[in-house]
Amino acid sequence: MTDFTSVNSQDYKNKESCQKNAATLVDHHQSGVSSKILEWFLSEWKKWEERLPCLQNITVQIRRIPPAWRTAFIIVWILWKVTLVIFFIRIFHWSRTDSNSKGIATSINPEQQHHHQQVQFHDTGASGDGKRTKVLYIVTSLAEYDTGSRATTKGRDRFQELMIPCIVDSIQSMLSHPYDFDVDFYLITAYELKQERLNYLKDRIPPGVGVQVWDDACPLGYDKRNSKDKLIDVTRALARQHRYVIKDKLHHYDIFLPFEDDMRIHGANVQHYLEMTAELERLTLEAPETLPDVPESEDPTKMKFFGSMTRDQMKRLVPGFIRVEVLVNEEEHAAQTKLAPIGLDFNFKRYLNGKYQPSFPDVEIDPSFCCHVPNMQPNYGVPIRPAPSDIIIWETRAEALALRRIENSKKFQWVLLLPGPGKRESPKEKVFGYWSGRNKEYGQVEKKPSGGVPDLIAQQGGWMATRDQLIRLDEELCAANFLPPYNEPIYYEDGQQSMNVEFWSGGYQYFTGVRGGCNMQRIVSFASPEDFSKHLLYHMANNKQKQLNKERMLRAQNLFGQMNTILKKAQNDMISILKKRKN
Q1: Residues near 121 by Cβ (< 8 Å), separated by ≥ 6?
Q2: Cys staple from 458: which of 6, 390, 396, 412, with CB 3.0 to 4.6 Å?
Q3: What's the rounded Cα separation, in Å, for the pair 246 and 256?
Q4: Helices (H), ranges, 311-427
Q5: What global pTM score does this model have?
C-alpha cells in the first residue's frame, strides 16, 4: 500500500504538476454531466488547492477512484449543497410565518402564554384565496357567571345562556349570504375555561371557523390599595388584551372586531362598515390639502355643515355605531316619555346611488339587522322579532348630535356626527356640523355638549377597524400607541394603571381626545332608515333598561324622527346660505 505522504512528495513538486493532476480528476469522463458544471467545479477546486495545500493530498486519493465514481461524487456533492440551501430557506420562512398563519399567538405577554388553548385554527393568512373578506372576531369575557351587579341575576350561567348564543348567532350571520365572510374567532377570558366548557364552545361554533382561546388572561399587578407586595389580577386591564392579539395577527386579516361578550354583531353591520370605509378612503384621496374656510368656526350657531373638507379632516372620519337594547317588558321597564323639544318627522327621502328617491311617509327603522334573532339557540328570554318601537338607546340623544353633508358621495350624503373628539385635537382636523341645537331648540342653551359626556358619548361595546386603519391609527393618527407596546410617559405599567375598561374596549381611546386618544370622528349614514339601522348594535344582556332611569331610554325610532327634522332644517339653511353667496 502506497504511503500517503510519499505519494504527496512524488506528485506535487511544482504548481504546473498540481494543475495537471487536478485536471486528470475528471479524466475526460463527462458523460451525463454538464461541461459547464465540471468546469466550474475544476475552477473552484484549483482555487482551494492554492489556499490549502493539504487538498493536494485529497486530489491524489481521488485519482485512485474510478472515473465513473468520481463523476457521481461531484453530482451528489452539488445536489447536497442545493438541498441544504433549500432547507435553510424553508426553515427561515417557517420561523417568520408559522405563528401567525396557524393562529398561534406569539406576541402576547409571556406570563400568559401557557393559558392558550388552540381548538382549531385554519390558515387565514394573506396567501388565501383572496376573494372572501377575512374577519377576526374577538370577544373578551370578564365573568363566567353573573355576579348580580348591574341588574343581572346572581349565579346565572352567563357563558352558556348569554355569551355563547350571542357569539354563535353573530358568526352565523357573518357567514351567511350575501356577506359570506371568512371568519375566525378568538375568545379572551378572565377565568380558566374548563375542558367541558371548551368542548361546548367547539361544538357550537359553525364548521370551518377557526377558534382560539386565551383563558385566565388577566395581567398581574401589585395590589396598591391594600398590600403593595401582593400580586393580584388587574381585571380592568383585561380589556387591553385584545390589542396584543390584534398586533400578533395584524397581517392575516382584513378587518378586526373586538367586542364585549354580550354584543351581537350582524354581518350587515360589518358589510356596511366596509362599504362606508371604502367610500371614505376614495373621498379622502380626492380631497384638497387646504381650504380657505379650514380651520372651521367653533361657534355652534355658525359651524360649517356642508361643502368640501380637507384631506386632514377626511382621514379622521370613520363609521360608528350606537348600542341598543330591546324592551323586554314595557310594563316593568318602559321607555322615555319626556322627549327633547324637537319634532318627530317620519316623512323621509332616501338617498340611493347618488340620487334622492320620492318621499316616503311613516318610515321606520329596520330592527332586523341588529335585533332579530329567530335562529339563536338556546334563547333564554330574548325577544325574537322586536318591533321598531322596541329598540331603545340610552347613551346618546339628539342634543349630542350634529349633521354634516359629505360632498361627492353616491353612497351617503348627510351623516350624523357622533360625539367624542375634542381635547388635544388639531384645529385643522376638526370636523363640525349642523348641531341639533343650532336654532335654540333647547331654549337659550347655545353650547354643544363636550365630546366625552358619559351618557351622551354613544359607546359601542367594542369597535371595528380594518388592517389599514389600524396601521394608520398606530403610526399616524393617535397621540400614543394604539397597539402594544404601551410605554411611558403616556402609559404606566404597560397600560395596566390609569387606563379604564372603556379606554380599551368601549372606544374612548379610539374616538376621544383623552390621554393617548385618537380623536376619530364617527359618522352614521343618514341616507336611509335601513342605513341608519345598520349602525345599531344589540346589547343582548338587556340589563340597562332595568338599571337606569327610564328617561334615559330613548326609542331609536324617535331619535331617527328627531334627526330627520333637523336634517330638513339643515337643508333649508344650506339653500339660504348658497343664495346669499350668489347675491
Answers
A1: 102, 103, 104, 184, 210, 211, 212
A2: 396
A3: 7
A4: 311-314, 368-371
A5: 0.79
**Exposure string (b/e) for 200-214, b if CB count within 10 Å is 16 or more?**
ebeebbeeebbbbbb
Neighbours of 285 (CB within 10 A): 10
How do residues 160-212 score in pLDDT, each as one tens digit? 999 999 999 999 999 999 999 999 999 999 999 999 999 999 999 999 999 99
Q: How far is C-alpha 202 from the geometric centre of its chain's CA atoms?
A: 23
434 to 127, 225, 562, 569: CA distances (angstroms): 46, 47, 13, 9
Q: 308, 365 in Cβ contact below 8 A?
A: no
DSSP β-bridge partners for residue 213 = 117, 187
Cα–Cα dist 157/76, whole Å: 66
Side chain identity, residue 259 = F
- Backbone phi and psi for residue 230, each to the nearest 5 degrees, phi listed first: -100, 135
Q: Considering only 33-42, 197-206, 395-404, which range has the smallest mean pLDDT? A: 33-42
Cell 337659550 maps to which residue? Answer: 444
pLDDT-based confidence at residue 46 (cuts at 50, 70, 90): confident
d(CA 328, CA 331): 9
What percentage of the chain exceeds 70 in pLDDT?
83
* Cβ pair 441, 340 in contact under 8 A: yes
Residue 20 CB neighbour total at 10 angstroms: 11
* Rama region for 4: left / alpha / beta (φ>0; ψ in -120 to 50; rest): alpha
- The Cα–Cα gap between 198 and 191 comes to 12
Q: If you write DSSP's letter for every residue of 494-539 in order, what string do you get? A: GGTBS--HIIIIISHHHHS-STT----EEEEE-S-HHHHHTTEEEE
* Confidence band of 221 (pLDDT split at 50, 70, 90): confident
- b/e string for 370-394 if b means 16 or more Cβ within 10 A? bbbbeebeeeeebbeebebbbbbbb
Q: Which helix (H) or strand (E) holds 94?
A: helix 67-101
Amino acid residing at 172? Q
Q: What is the pLDDT of residues 494-553, one digit of tens each?
A: 888 767 788 888 788 999 988 899 999 999 999 999 999 999 999 999 999 999 999 999
- Backbone φ and ψ of 487, nearest 5°: -105, 165
Q: How far apart are CA 337 and CA 326, in angstroms?
A: 16
The CA–CA distances, whole Å, from 365 to 141, 387, 401, 474, 561 equal 31, 9, 18, 35, 10
Q: What share of the chain is helix, strand, coil (3-state, %, to 5)?
A: 40, 15, 45
Write the CA distances from 503 to 19, 103, 397, 510, 539, integer angstroms: 77, 27, 21, 8, 19
Rg of the chain over Cα atoms, rounded to whole angstroms, equals 33
Out of 70-84, 120-134, 335-349, pick the least confident: 120-134
Q: Is 542 left (phi over 0), alpha (psi -120 to 50) or beta?
A: left
Q: How many of the other CB atoms lie within 10 Å of CB of 143?
A: 17
The mean pLDDT value for 144-165 works out to 89
- 241: exposed, middle or buried (C-beta count within 10 Å: 0-12, 13-18, 19+)? buried
